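Incident log, structure service

09:12 report received: a user says their structure output differs between two submissions of the same chain.
09:20 pulled the input from the user's history:
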Amino acid sequence: MASFIIRRLIASIFVLFAATFLMYLLVSFSGDPLEDLRQSNAPNKAELIEARTKLLNLDVPPPLRYFLWLGGLFRGDFGISIQNQSVNAMLGNAITSTLTLVTTATVVAIVLGIAVGIISALRQYTGFDYGMTLVSFLFFSLPVFWVAVLLKQYGAIQMNNWLANPVISIPVIIGIAVVTGLIWMSIIGGRWKRRLTVFAVSAIATGAVLAFLSATEWFSDPSIGIVVYAFLALGIAVGVTAISTGLRNRKALYASLIVAVIGIALYFPMINYILNGMTLWFFVLLAVLSIVVSGAIGWFMGGADRAPVVRTTAIVGFLVASLIALDKYMSYWQAYANSSRVRGRPIATVGASTPGLGGNFWVQGIDLYTHLLLPTIAIILISFASYTRYSRASLLEVMNQDYIRTARAKGLTQRTVVVRHAFRNALIPITTIIAFDVGAIIGGAVVTETVFGWTGMGRLFVTALDAHDPNPVMAFFVVTGTLAVLFNLIADLVYAALDPRIKVG
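09:34 re-ran on a clean worker, output below:
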């Protein structure tokens, strides 16, 4: 393993050297960094040209200038831009902005895409499968700039208008209820009697919930409350256990229920006392603590087979704690929406934050969320399609293998066959796609960043390329190239972890 990693790293270093040298020459010969000054009418034009020439070493031939740049790179210095700004500072701001925007969208797209793809594979040739295939190809074919403009119009402007009087009309309630019933009917499957029962229950429940939320004007002042939180916490415990280990594993089920009950008992102390005066590091500490304590409960109750119980309780603890944090965020929604800076239009269309907003940790968190909402949805809709199709095709291929039929012949349950045998091997080709996408996260989403006014890595690259500014372009190339190499190495190691037949030696 160690020798494999060392060999790959050495080969990658030579590849990066060759790639950066070629890229530096291409950028250097693509345009003149002095073009704007040559066209200037400034009286001191000659002095400005001489100063920039010395600043960027433009009097040195590009092949030799590359090694001057490389020497600075070894010292951790990406150089100076044509505007005499530190590229390190520009790169730090751009990376932070891009990670904030794209990481959340990519993680959500991966989770939703794989989940929907698996369900489509298990419900092959059903209404749900055909519907998701249509939706996936539709999203995949949509241009992102058009999606972004539509989201700004209907996801921000029209939504803000509706939030001024958040009443859901009866036809809308009926339409959403019918669509929800059809979706659940397709997912559950079975005979027509069972399908109609699922359709009726889900449609009536959805319609009743929407009618209640509209009548109580919940969208103006949202909250979860202890009663709903208790039902959700217990439901999470049962649902996660059913997927992770199966409800027959009583130790995992009881441990998860204990975690949920502890979350219910801590609801009021957390909401009213502990979460007041919150800071980012304390918030992260509480999140880690919830996972550790929940995992410890699974460890003590797991018996001989502790690993799946610990995994299950850790997931339950994280989700239960997240519900409390979500409820705390909701308690500040009305104060945020009615603030003097927001003025009743909380869904933002441009930028990463509201200027001069102020407020505590929770208000700032809501502000970040409202600015992330639309660009995140735009990226999710485009990425969701590829993950759905790849995961569906991969699982269908695995489900037709001989060892899957053998597992079923042994009398294993459908959950065990899918989760423990098929899903793990189906992840191998998906890992390749995820590695490429995660490696490209730092490259930014140029169109999305432009439409929604985010100054990230994509905007940094395009702006520098237009200005014939070599140092920011090279900084972008070094970071993205290094991450691409790193995540491909990680993908190779994940292959070996998923399938013992694959060796990295």
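09:41 both user submissions now match this output. Likely a transient worker issue. Closing.
09:42 reviewer note: The two ends are 6 Å apart (CA to CA). The CA atoms of residues 119 and 481 lie 35 Å apart.
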